[in-house]
Design brief:
Length: 108
Amino acid sequence: MLAALGQLAAVFVGIPSLIYLAVQIREQTKERRQSAVNALTVQWGDLTCALHDSAELSAIFLRGVQSFADLDPVSKLRFSAFLNTFLNHFEAMYFAHSEGLLTSIGMG
């Protein structure tokens, strides 16, 4: 009889613990999603700031989009570095979306 009461008490203690654990995991998932969105937003903002803060980089970007071959070697390097960063951000957004961290626009 005492063993049965002990098992029953363990169940009553264990169930709230499991519920608490599930709530904590859910909150951590929300925080992880928000952190990913915040990080991607900051990265995207930094990338666009590079274009609108630097008229020289903006001019290189426009010329590079029109004709990469016409750029001088330094401009080719700057354009390639910017484009690499740009594509890396899109890749990060793609993987975050495929993992469910980012949702579709309007589905939020």
